[in-house]
Amino acid sequence: MTDTPSTPTPPLLSSQNNRRSFLKLLTASSVTVGGVVVAWPFLNSLNSQNTILEHSFVDVDISSLKTGQQITVTWQGHPVFILNRPKETLQTLQDASLVSHLRDPDSKDFQQPPYTQNWHRSIHPETAVLIGVCTHLGCVPTLQLSNKMGGLYNCTCHGSRFDLAGRVYKSMPAPYNLPVPPYTYIKPNIIRIGENPKGQDFDFTKIKQL
Known about the structure:
With about 210 residues, the chain is an alpha+beta fold. The chain contains 3 helices and 9 strands, in the order H-E-E-E-H-H-E-E-E-E-E-E.
């Protein structure tokens, strides 16, 4: 029996098959690379956002803040009260008649950095730095200065009251003192909110309640 010779592939058909295979491979590679190219800006933006959140801070010049005055700035979407407290207020904050009416006068609940766990809840006694959000339902309290008890923060939404160190009074809807954010002094009159002093550690996300 004579073997039937195989029919050779025409050069033109072979060339077309090779070209078709090459185009398929190129298309598949383009889709894969394209997917990475499209995804990279998105992934990179997430990394950038995380970096911004982790290292975001606000610098505030308090050199023109007069005694009894308060300014409000925004840090990570939260209002932050910066109050220059009069000497009379500082004396009142230590008065036994006030302290006896406070729910957490010694700031034992984790609502502030360790370096502000003191009777004035601040780095320097005369300057209060507080998150201006009531710990009840998130309303913004109003500053009311007066001769009686030196003044207070009054939440008009549901009646919670805090002294000028942000400590909540007893029998109020708010369960905790006003939070104190991480902050430091980068110059004598410039406060950096969002950064701890050197050698100090405080994770604001772990406070009791905002």
